[in-house]
Amino acid sequence: MKKLTQWFCMSALVFSQAHAQTPTKEDPRFAGLDKEFNSILHTWHVAGFAVAVVEKDKIVYAKGFGYRDYEHKLPVTQNTLFAIGSNTKAFTAGLLGILRGEGKVDFEQPVRRFLPELEFATPELNEQVTLRDMMTHRTGVQRYDYSWFVFPPTSRDSLLWRIRYFQPHTPLRSRWEYNNFMYLAQGKVAEKLTGKSWEDNIRHYYFEPLEMSHSDCSVTEMVKQEDVALPYSVAQDSIIKKLNYHNIDVIAPAGSINSSVLDMAHWASMWINGGKYKGKAVLPEPYVREATGLQMAIWYDQPDKLHPDLHFNGYGLGWFLRSYRGHYQAEHGGNIDGFSALTCIFPTDSISIIVLSNQSGSKVPDIVHNILADRALKLSKIDWNGEADKAIHTKKPVADKKEDTVIIKGTTIIRPLAELTGTYGNNLYGNFEVFQQNDSLFARFPVETVYLKHRGYDIFDANSTTDPTAGSMTTIHFLMDDNGDINSLNMRLDDDTPAVFVKRK
Prior knowledge:
With 505 residues, the chain is α+β, with helices and mostly antiparallel strands. It has three domains: 4-85 and 198-377, DD-peptidase/beta-lactamase superfamily (Beta-lactamase), CATH 3.40.710; 95-191, no CATH class; 417-503, Beta Barrel (Lipocalin). The protein has 13 helices and 23 strands. The protein has helices spanning 33-44, 88-101, 123-128, 131-135, 146-149, 156-161, 180-194, 198-207, 219-222, 261-272, 285-291, 364-376, 384-393; strands at residues 48-55, 58-69, 74-75, 82-83, 232-235, 239-242, 258-259, 276-277, 280-281, 296-297, 313-315, 320-324, 327-336, 339-346, 351-357, 422-426, 430-437, 440-444, 449-456, 459-464, 472-480, 486-491, 499-503. A nine-stranded antiparallel β-sheet has the order 3-2-1-15-14-13-12-11-10, sandwiched between helices. Strands 16-17-18-19-20-21-22-23 form an eight-stranded antiparallel beta barrel. The longest helix is centred in the middle third of the chain and has 15 residues, at 180-194. It is globular and about 75 Å long. The model is unreliable at 1-21 and 398-405 (pLDDT under 50).
């Protein structure tokens, strides 16, 4: 069954005359890249992307490729704004690093000492979960991303409230479990300690001292600027399709920053210079080393034959940690509707790479990163674009599975559609409305209205009204009480166990 994951596709022009200027002549390490990168545009049908490479305190390469507006053929520049998605997490965790340096917070104390309104599903988690647990994704609570992506409330406080309904998936600190909600909560801790909004903290502690003059914290701010990338996806493997911007302000501390590669170069330069920008401390140096040091293993295994140089795979504080061809690397990707991003730091090499693209779930940031890393680190050349393209076309076909959204033959709708209509709610997710229009049934979710196609009995498939080729997103099964009245429905979302929505009116 195709689930609602179809909806997932689950941000200064120069440093200064004396600091990290955009290169005026081409570094020989990056000669000839235009042809290679333009080829990548065509191979992956991406509208556009921008790149920057920082070495020590200088931008040694920065360029835009393709289009920020594909329809009007407006080019990507070094200043074009893109959504950076989960690259935002290192900004949020860093706020707590700054506040710890000021003696305002302790990573090892239970987080509820600093944010008592945060409540978990069990007394043990309430008593034991620390900020470090949340920063390293080791709380044992799984993502529950549909709760914010498909059912976003109007406030962060309302979203924070839902965490009490998240049942732990694994024991505390036993396994790495990526969780956007834990970064929302970190943002709330920073707000509590400073008395300022998360957005004001980001501007005060980062955008201003790092001269990130084009960056912002919401798509509502982003669209007001001139040099802005539009969001795209790829339809039918080759058609560049424009999407709508997706506003994720409600969970902003986990992923709502928008930025350009030049602004992100300021951010990256600070990380590879011990937390300093233009000689002035922005992040405490001990925190920089800690955040880019191994805090939690993601898997426990030896390298395989395909990737013998992948010596480890772990997480720091807002950074993934891996080896890249023998070099220590801290990096983080970011994905949101119409955008994919990657920021990488090689701390011991004093090199950083930023790739921002306006394509959903794109392979381009990884491919371009590898090409740039090989050149910046003076490694032997590998045809990363060719290998990725070959891997896609030589992938073994998946054995046909029994279609689980077929019409149940010989069945009809048990009751009039009007009896199925109403508002249905779940504490973990929120509310949505089922309504009838002529002889058809629809479900109005906060992010999209879907058509409910009858499958059999009181079972319906939820199909997109904007993308008829997407197929069933999930299956909704209406349920009755002992009197035969419809009183609830269930559908599969984050868990294998269906979520039950009670009919509220």
